[in-house]
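#struct-help
A.M.: can someone run this one for me? Single chain, 162 residues.
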Amino acid sequence: MLWVSCPFIQRVPSGTIIDHSCIDLTMVPVSAIQNAKSTLRIAYGHTSHGSQITTGMNGLVAFANGSGLEGEFSAYANLFAWNADGSGGALCLEDSPFAGASDLGNPNLTAWEAATLTYLNSNADVNVVIWSWCGQVSGASEAQIANYLSLMNQLETDYPGV
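D.P.: on it. Structure tokens below:
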């Protein structure tokens, strides 16, 4: 049944990947959601296009709290709640917390790196950083993309726990 509802679920040594093709959210174990909420401290940088994620998360909270999910999920109010500090058992997701950059291309294609360094050096508890592109990547050259990948690789090397 799991494979029918979520045809692209992958079993990997470190866990299970459920991607955008999964149409049955109840196939995600409540324990996995609770574990994510208790262990992840996320900083998310984006502009308008990136707000689709947080808007969707707000919609998911309303849907789930409005009896949109059945079974085990119906016993948990605010199971999908999120806020900037993780208070009240919510997922900790700091929305657009970076000074000096709004997304991966704003104000330019490299400002995000310094903004990330500054932020991580002041927020050692953060263990996930997410950045989104707006439209700038479509006009980026191969050299600019290579530079982005190099900067990102260096951040991954310098902050292996993130």
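A.M.: thanks! DSSP finds five helices and six strands in the chain.
D.P.: also worth noting: The two ends are 34 Å apart (CA to CA).
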